[in-house]
Amino acid sequence: MTSQSATRAPLPAATPPLIAQIGASLLGGLAVLMGGALLFALVFGALNLGRVYPNVSVGGVDLSGVRRTEAATRLASALDFPHQGQITLSYGERTWTLTPAQLGLRLDAEASADAAYGFGRSLWPWQSVAEKAEVLRGGADLAPRLVFDGDIANATLLQLAQELNQPTVEAVLSINGLDVQVSPGQVGLTLDIASTSNLLASQLLRMENTEVPLVVVEQPPRILDVSAQAEIARSILSQEVRIVPGGDYEGNPAGWSFTPEELAGMLKIERVDYEDGARYQIGLDNQSIGAFVASLAPEVAEDPQNARFIFNDETRQLDLLQAATIGRRLQIEASVEHINQQLAEGAHTIELQYDYGNPEVTSEATAPELGITELVEEQTTYFYGSSAERMQNIATAASRFHGLLVAPGEVFSMVDNIGDISLDSGFAEALIIYGDRTIKGVGGGVCQVSTTLFRTVFFGGFPVIERSSHAYRVYYYELNASNNVDGRFAGLDATVYAPVVDFKFQNDTPYWLLMETYVNIPARTITWKFYSTDDGRTVEWDSTGLQNVVDAPDAVYEENSDLAQGTIKQVDWEADGADVTVYRTVMRDGQVLYDDVFRTHYRPWAAVYQYGPGTPNMPPEADNNN
C-alpha cells in the first residue's frame, strides 16, 4: 500500500494597498466621532454657560440651570440637616438629644455648589463628555460636601462628660450599737471623648437621624454592694445566740447565751481582698469568741468510758450494766469557724465541734473477747456500828466501781475512778481522819471501800503499786463476821484521800478484769469481786501481829460553845499504837511472782470529849484542856 498526502493551496496574500485603504477608513471614522463629541461639548457648554447643567442635583436639591452663587444659597437653605437633624446620644437608660451642628457637623454650601457647577466641565475631555452624557441620560445627584469639626464635637462631649462622669466609690459597712449602717458603692464612669468623637464622625456623615451610644469607661469599685453582708449582721443582732454543747452526755451543760448587745461588742467586720475584687466578712471576732470557746474545753470534755458489765454466773456471759461512752475533746478553731458559719446562715442555736474517741471496750463486747470466764477473787469487810451517813458514803463510793473493767497491764487508780466526792454528788458528812484529829468531813467511810479493794487485790495476788495505812487503828477494818475485832486484819487497811493519797494496783494478767461491788446495809457488809481468768497463781501470807504496842494517851476534854450546858459528847476514840508487818508471797507454777512486805505503824490515839460551857462534874484534867 502506498501513502498519499494532500496539500492545501495557500490563501492569496492581502495586498498592501488594501490594508492601507481599511486603516484610512477607520481613522477617518474616529476623527469624525471625536470631532462630533467635541462639537457636542462645545455647543452644550455654550448653551449652559455660567449655569449648572440640567438634571444635576446635590443631596436631592435640583440645581438645573442655576448659577453658581445661587446654587450655594439654595443648598444652604434646603440642606438644613446640621441644624434640624436629631442625634440621640445614649448610655444605659440615659439619653441626650443634640443637633448635628452641636456635634460639629456643617454643610459646605460653596464647595457643594462648586461641585454641582463643575459636573460635566472637567478638564479631561472624555470625562467631561461622559458626565454631559450622564446628565442627558437621567441626571446626576451629587453628595453634599459636609465638614465634621472635631473641636466642636470635643467641646460638646466635654460638657456632657461633666454631667456623666462620676468617681469610683467603695461600699462601706459599719456597726453603731445595734444599728447596721450601709454606704453603697458607686461604679466610676469616664466618657471616652476621643472614641465617641470618631464614632460620631462616621454616623453624622450619613445625614440621618440616629442614636449613637457613648463610649464610657466603667471603673467598678472592689466592693460595690454590701446589702447581703448587712443582712447577715442584722440577723446576728436580731436575737440572742445560744451556744450548746451538743451530744447526749451525762452532765452536759445547758448551754451559754449571748445577748444582742454582747454580740455587737464581739462583732467584727473584716475586709477580705482577692484577685478580682474584695468583700466584707461578717462574724464574731475570732480572738473574743475563741477565748470563750477555749474556756469551755474542760467543762465539755469527756474521756472515753468503757462499757460496764455484770458477769452472769449462770450464763457465764456479760450483762450490760452501763453503755460505753464515746470520748470527746473540744475543737476550738473548728468551733469558732462553725459558729461564724452558722451565724452567717441565720442560725442562733449552734453546737460546739469536737474530736471523738472510741473506748477500748464497747457495749457489744463479750466475755470470751475480754477473757472474763470466772470469779477469781472475792473479799468482804464489815462496818457494824457505822452511822447512817457513813453507810451512805460507803454505798455511794462502792457504786463508782461496780462494773468497771481493768485492762491487761493497766495500773488502776482508785482516786482517778472515784470521781467527785461532795455533797452534790451523793456523799454525806461523816467522821474522817484529818491531821491529828478525827473530824466530820464529806466522804467519811470511803476508806472502808478502799480497804475492801486492797484486800481483794492482796488475796487475789495482784501487785500493789501504792498503798497508805490509816494514822491509827480503826476498829471497822478489823471486824469479822461475828462483829468482833480480829487482830488478824490489822495492817490490811488502805486509806484514800483524793487527790493526795491514793490506792493503786496493777492487772498483770493478759485478761481483762471485771470488778463488782455489793453493799448490804442490813448486814453491814461490802463485798468486792474480781472476775477474770484464773492463771493458776496462789497466795500465801503471814503477819507479825501487833508489836511495839503503846497505850492510848489520856482522854482529852474540850469545851464546845455550840453544846448546851451539861452536854458531853465524844468526838474521837482511843486506840493503842502498834506496829504490824504483813508478808505475802504470790506463786504460779512453782515460781515466785511477788514477795511483798507491808509494814504499818499505827500511832497511839487519845479519846476526845467535848462539853458545853458550865458543865459540872468534869474530870480534873478538863481544866487543863480548855
How would you characterize the overall build of this protein?
This protein has 626 residues and is α+β, with helices and mostly antiparallel strands. 28% of the residues lie in helices and 30% in strands. The chain has 15 helices and 37 strands. A 4-stranded antiparallel sheet has the order 22-30-29-23. Strands 31, 32, 35 and 36 form a 4-stranded antiparallel sheet that branches. The chain has a 3-stranded mixed sheet with strand order 2-1-6, covered by helices on one side. Strand 3 (87-91) and strand 4 form a beta hairpin. The protein is rod-shaped, with a radius of gyration of 59 Å. The termini are far apart. Mean pLDDT is 88; it is low at 1-9.
Write the layout of secondary structure elements.
Elements: H1 16-47, E1 56-58, E2 61-62, H2 68-78, H3 81-84, E3 87-91, E4 94-98, E5 105-107, H4 109-118, H5 125-137, E6 140-142, E7 146-148, H6 150-164, E8 172-176, E9 179-183, E10 188-191, H7 193-204, E11 210-213, E12 216-219, H8 227-236, E13 241-244, E14 256-258, H9 260-266, E15 267-274, E16 277-284, H10 286-300, E17 308-312, E18 317-322, E19 327-330, H11 332-344, E20 349-351, E21 354-357, H12 367-370, E22 374-382, H13 388-399, E23 405-406, E24 411-413, H14 414-418, E25 429-434, E26 437-442, H15 446-460, E27 464-466, E28 504-506, E29 513-520, E30 525-532, E31 538-543, E32 547-550, E33 556-559, E34 568-572, E35 577-588, E36 591-602, E37 608-611
Parallel strand pairs: 1-6, 3-11, 13-20, 33-37
Antiparallel strand pairs: 1-2, 3-4, 5-7, 8-9, 10-12, 13-14, 15-16, 17-18, 19-21, 22-30, 23-29, 24-28, 25-26, 27-28, 29-30, 31-35, 32-35, 34-37, 35-36
Helix pairs in contact: 1-5, 2-4, 6-7, 10-11, 13-15
